[in-house]
Amino acid sequence: MLTKKVEKALNKQIEIEANASQFYLSMASWAETKGFEGVASFFYRHSDEEREHMLKLIKYINERGGHAIVPPLEKPPKIFECLSHVFKDLLNHEIMVTKEINKVVDICLKDKDYTTHNFMQWYVAEQIEEEALARHILDKLKLIADDKGGLYLFDRDIVNMNPTKN
Ligand code: OFO
Q1: Which domain, by its residues, includes 108?
Q2: 145 part of a folded domain
Q3: Closest ligand 1 atom, residue 123 Cα
Q4: pLDDT single digits (tens) 82-131
Q5: How many angstroms is it from 81 CA to the middle of ligand 1?
Q6: What is the DSSP string of 66-84?
Q7: Distances from the Cα of 62 to the Cα of 10, 58, 100, 142, angstroms
Q8: Nearest CA to ligand 1 atom 3
Q9: What is the pLDDT of residues 49-73, one digit of tens each?
Q10: Structural Rg of the chain based on CA atoms
Q11: What is the pTM of this model?
């Protein structure tokens, strides 16, 4: 059985994952309209994975006798300045998600809920990979700068970069 505090923290995390999914979906749509097909498919996939993260939380809460609440969604931005901005936003968003996950872990420890603490370790590990990938992509974009040929190749190659290895 979950304590009320842990249940509340997990429900908040559902909201964060749902909004991340919306945010990345908006990035995918923007990239598609700009002709960056590879980037669009990267973000469509990323958006799906965030939804999976949300579903995993929903199922866990309900399995442990709590009630998972389906949250309302925030309106994501629809226009992005350029590819570098999109990936900077991605990195900053993931850094925020990591902080939120750490807060959930902290609440689990305070409430001595070692089962949920164990469940959350999957998210902790996932965040290391997601932040590292966003940083790696930003480094590549820095090298490319405004080189059109470089951007073309980047868009082609990003298809093979997995947002996460679920
Ligand atoms: Fe990108 O993060 Fe979910 O957890």
Answers
A1: 4-160
A2: yes
A3: 4
A4: 999 999 999 999 999 999 999 999 999 999 999 999 999 999 999 999 99
A5: 23
A6: ----PPP-PPPP---S-HH
A7: 11, 6, 21, 44
A8: 50
A9: 999 999 999 999 999 999 999 999 9
A10: 17
A11: 0.94
